[in-house]
Design goal:
690 residues; ANKF1 protein; Nucleoside Triphosphate Pyrophosphohydrolase; 4 domains; Serine Threonine Protein Phosphatase 5, Tetratricopeptide repeat; seven-stranded mixed β-sheet; Immunoglobulin-like; 40% helix; five-stranded antiparallel β-sheet; disordered N terminus; extended; alpha+beta
Amino acid sequence: KMTQQMRDLQLAQARKPPGPSSPNAAKRLYRNLSGKFRVNYTSFDEGSLVGRGEKEKLRKSYLFQSNAALFEAVELQDLDRVQEMLKHYSPEELDLNTPNSEGLLPLDIAIMTNNAPIARALLQAGAKESPHFVSLESRSLHLSTLVREAEQRVNELMAQVVNEAPNADCSEKEKQLKAWEWRFRLYKRMKAGFEHARVPDAPSSVHLSVASSSSLQVTFWEPLSVNSAVVTKYKVEWSCSPTFSPLLGEAVIDKLKDLHFTIQGLVSGTAYHIRVSAYNMKGWGPPQASVPPFAIPSNWREYDGRAPRRRGQAEALDHLLGQVKTVHQHCICHEPCKNQPQSRKHSVSKSLKHLFHPGSKFLKTLKRGLYLTAIFYKDDNILVTHEDQIPVVEIDDTYSCLLMQDFLWLTKVSCMWDEILWLRQCVTVSQSSCSCILQTRFKMLLAISQMQGLLGIQDLGQVFFEPIKDKQGNILIVTLKEVKTNQTFESVRWVPICKLQTSRKSVSSPEEPTALDTLLISLQDKLAYHQRSSHALSAGLYLGYLKLCSAVDQIRVLVPEQLPNILCHVKIRSNPNISREEWEWLQKMASVEEPVPTEPDVDRSQNPLFQELQVAIKELMTLVNIPLQEAKDFRLYSQEVLDFGDQVSFLLLLPPSDDVCTAPGQNNPYTPHSGFLTLPLQIFELGEER
């Protein structure tokens, strides 16, 4: 039967483009794929071919040649070429899991020649073993047949070469003979590799951790032995019994990029035993029990039955905002506001000024007052007006000092740019109180509306954490927004940032730059801050350092420059969950007022969280430049774990109670001097929410 299949395949191959038959042919084909042929395939994607039949024909030819080149690279044990092809081509383009004419896949050849590096590279890319090998006997029979057929073909060609007189046909037969001799040696090597292989050893280590109140996470490492064949999959089993009888469930992992698995749907409070075994072409090896030997799904909230802090808060706030809007729909806030007598003179002067400036425009210069500027950037370009100016509008030309409360109010408004018109209507009706604060905030809303109208966009981005001030009495509030799509804006255009900085003519001296000049000089720093403040942490449990400092009108929090939307921190582990048992241990440690664990303790060496905290605290103290001996006076915040979604959680490390918040003029021994900045607490909270 195998002989007939081989003959049928040879006849079929005679009717299609010939594949490579030697190592040299593989190299030529790979060069072809890397150069000329890739260009042809790209042009096919761009629609340069008209007929669908021609496109399909070219696609099949491309898949055939790339698949053949991969087989040749694996057979030649050329790791660099295999990695290069896996990097530049998708599994679909390489036809990675389609058997060749011998019924083999690239992974089959790699594992049966015991080429572990190539086999691992293929497994990382999603390669599979041939589904035809349902048993050890079927694989052995298939290999024996391939060896026998190849040997028979070699003998036939050798006889033809010996008996025929030298001519063109004889030369071609000699080439075929060399190719089959090479393939015969390959099949014999594969057969020997299979016969000498044995089942894999147990995984070298299996770590078990609690992922949630209904799941456990299993992390494992490949066997240490190098004498067995390459492992192609793993099996995770779980049971409530240490004897694994009965077995509650199992899962086979054949995607080996990350050797971990999360068991879902478990019962909270129930102990589960876990074991993992490895598989290769000779079968399943012995299982390895986990460390610890069992775990109980739980969460720290189960310790005292505490509900999540933010459960339903977003929905409640949306409902409350909807109620407020409903109340204001038919009130007098939709009527034009009446100016107060004491502001009439100023209103008349403004009206006369508008007679000469009928349309709202961006400002070119600042003339002592409060202003708003919007920075929109994309890559190395920035939006400017047609006069090559950064978009600036006036808020109030009589406002000489910005109160921090007004600025913080504006940062909150930035969370609802789409509601500016409604907010204006609400603030308008409140002006009857003649409040100076309300007057200023109403002008802020007017300026925002003006900026939105001139740019033709509602979302002005994020407010920079501090306004820019100069000695001429100007205050500039800056908003920042990164544009990632090809948006069109009104009255503005894109220019390179470097061109704007070099072409702008300063109207101030270097000793006393204007707010606009200061903005241009520090523009890259502000853009870097904006980009960093939108970065998210990877999943895991972190140790954060809480340090505050107070001023006359605000409290500021210490944050790293590289990630200003998060407290100073280090990662404890990749699993963000704190189990009930771990939280109970933390509570006991806090109740006896023990110092922060910085030195090894033999009695607690078996507690994984204790060991992880020791490492994290040392790393955090080094990060913030605090001597380790001073950390003995620090303490862990034991009231709750700070959860940021389901994937990130924080434990807080606090300085001594008298030093958590430093007062003005107070000596501050627990604040680092470089690589960090302090943000107003309200700004930090808004950045955290974003």
